[in-house]
């Protein structure tokens, strides 16, 4: 989101649970687009709130899995906050070798880009 649309919008990445480290395949396929994830750390919804991000200050949550959609809807039932679900393929566990795994991660990355473009238009030149 930040790479394609700039820093004018406040964006945070959060998951249902904290896996601590970002998957190496995700890092690799994002690096192909000059998106740096190697220093990124995942965090859960609970950690996000503990670290000072109040969900009520956001306008939109984009859930990429049914579990994250359920958790987002549960957490936001008292806020005027939209929750969208984008049915993105989960590439973890797909493929038998490095090449088929990286291909699955590229497909997921490209699905996310397609959804970003459909929601917010073509990426801006930054």
How does this model look, in words?
Helix 4 links the parallel strand 1 (60-63) and strand 2 (82-85). The protein is globular, with a radius of gyration of 15 Å. It contains five helices and two strands, in the order αααβαβα. It has helices at residues 2-5, 24-31, 45-50, 66-75, 98-120, and strands at 60-63, 82-85. The chain has one domain: Rossmann fold. With 126 residues, it is mainly alpha-helical. It has a two-stranded parallel ribbon. The longest helix has 23 residues, at 98-120.
How do the helices and strands line up, and which of them pair or pack?
Layout: H1 2-5, H2 24-31, H3 45-50, E1 60-63, H4 66-75, E2 82-85, H5 98-120
Parallel strand pairs: 1-2
Helix pairs in contact: 2-5
How many β-strands, per DSSP? 2
Oligomeric nature of the chains: single chain
Query: Which structural class is indicated by helix and strand composition?
Result: mainly alpha
- Helix percentage: 40-55%
CATH topology: Rossmann fold
Strand content: 5-15%
Rg estimate, integer Å: 15 Å
Overall pLDDT metric: 87
Give the N-to-C terminal Cα separation.
Answer: 12 Å
CATH class: Alpha Beta
Could you state the order of secondary-structure elements as H and E? HHHEHEH
- What coarse outline follows from CA principal-axis ratios? globular
The number of distinct helices, counting runs of at least 4 residues, comes to 5
CATH architecture: 3-Layer(aba) Sandwich
CATH superfamily: Response regulator
Strand order of the largest sheet: 1-2
Runs with pLDDT <50, length 5+? none
Q: Characterize the largest beta sheet: strand count, sense, and whether it forms a barrel.
A: 2 strands, parallel
Tally the structural domains.
1
């Amino acid at each position: 989101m930040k790479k394609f649309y700039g820093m004018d919008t406040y964006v945070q990445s959060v998951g249902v649970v904290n896996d601590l480290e970002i998957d190496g395949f995700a890092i690799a396929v994002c690096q192909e687009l000059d998106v740096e994830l190697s220093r990124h750390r995942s965090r859960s919804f609970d950690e996000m709130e503990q670290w000072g991000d109040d969900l009520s200050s956001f306008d939109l949550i984009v859930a990429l899995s049914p579990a994250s959609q359920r958790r987002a809807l549960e957490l936001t039932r008292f806020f005027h906050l939209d929750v969208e679900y984008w049915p993105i393929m989960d590439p973890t566990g797909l493929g038998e070798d490095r090449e088929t795994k990286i291909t699955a991660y590229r497909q997921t990355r490209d699905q996310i880009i397609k959804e970003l473009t459909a929601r917010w238009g073509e990426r801006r030149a930054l």
